[in-house]
Design brief:
It is built from no helices and 10 strands. A hairpin with a 6-residue loop joins strand 4 (about 30-40) and strand 5 (about 45-50). The strands form 2 sheets. A 6-stranded mixed sheet has the order 2-10-9-4-5-6, with no helix packed on it. It has a 4-stranded antiparallel sheet with strand order 1-3-8-7, with no helix packed on it. The chain is globular. The chain has strands at about 1-5, 10, 15-25, 30-40, 45-50, 55-60, 65-70, 75-80, 90-95, 105-115. The protein is mostly beta strands.
């Protein structure tokens, strides 16, 4: 399974971005996709995730601002980020798994929130 994250960039505080995580390969072996981020000098943290039962969860820090969705036909999971704050600046990663572990990781995409 391969994952490709894209959509990062520079945005002003209060702005929006949509990240995409496109999967390829043996995607029938995965059951869930998660979004993570790592800010400079900080540990990686969970942003949220979705499973194929459409259960979605979010970190408290992004609830009400970020939305995760899935397009089955495009094999893509999206992370819509609204009301962005400078503290959302990080490299964002997506990962995929079939059980309790994250078995596959994509490249990171940099999100910078700055005026």
């Amino acid at each position: 399974v391969q994952l490709q994250a894209s959509g990062g960039g520079l945005v002003q505080p209060g702005g929006s971005l949509r990240l995409s995580c496109t999967t390829s390969g043996r995607t029938d072996s995965i059951y869930r996709i998660g979004w993570f981020r790592q800010a400079p000098g900080k540990e990686r943290e969970v942003v949220g995730g979705i499973n194929w039962n459409k259960n979605i969860y979010y970190a408290d820090s992004v609830k009400g601002r970020f939305t995760i969705s899935r397009d089955n036909a495009r094999h893509t999971v999206y992370l819509q980020m609204n009301s962005l704050k400078p503290e959302d600046t990080a490299v964002y990663y997506c990962a995929a798994g079939s059980g309790s572990s994250w078995d596959y990781w994509g490249n990171g995409t940099l999100v910078t929130v700055s005026s």
